């Protein structure tokens, strides 16, 4: 539910920000964020129940989890997936413009965001019914790679033009939950620390992916080539995931 709320917030927030920016400039968008933040803070203070909470795991506690090789490998898959999926998201506008001369990114952000909501809301049910979160991660990575590789083709087929973005959003947002299940199985006594480590790897991957995208474009890669590069990274993550599954089976 938390990931579902985040993905829904991304859908509504990005689009609302674009609308406000079109009428009041980016200053207006920043003021809107400030006002909404204050409203949320007041609502939490007034209505949120006072639930005793344990202190969050420190950075040292999170990094200590990496002493376990399987934890390190699993978090590494999350990191590479974050580089590819969230890093590529940063460049949606130049990718669309370079691929097909598209200037309005809003419909594609809708497709990506709606996919994110669907993926994050239904992945938990899928894990509960099927089990085997490691294999589910493998399936997610296959679909994510296919979505990225098919972006240029999809834009040229009107009936399919939004499908790659929907699948990309759905698989990107669904990728965290099965990884968390695996990590909790590996470190049941250190659940908060290992989940926090996984989330940190995801968003660190986002930052690295955004920076890496800029670097490779300065080096000569065009925006239209970024989906292919990101898809190749997902294949690297898939290969790593298959190695993890093979090692687990042998063990």
From TrEMBL:
Subcellular location: Cell membrane
Membrane topology: Multi-pass membrane protein
A Pfam entry, by short name: MFS_1
Membrane-spanning ranges: 31-50, 71-96, 108-127, 134-153, 159-179, 200-220, 226-245
UniProtKB keywords: Cell membrane, Membrane, Transmembrane, Transmembrane helix, Transport
Record-level Gene Ontology MF annotations: transmembrane transporter activity
Top-level taxon of the source organism: Bacteria
GO cellular component terms, semicolon-separated: plasma membrane
Domain Major facilitator superfamily (MFS) profile: 1-249
Protein name (Swiss-Prot/TrEMBL): Major facilitator superfamily (MFS) profile domain-containing protein
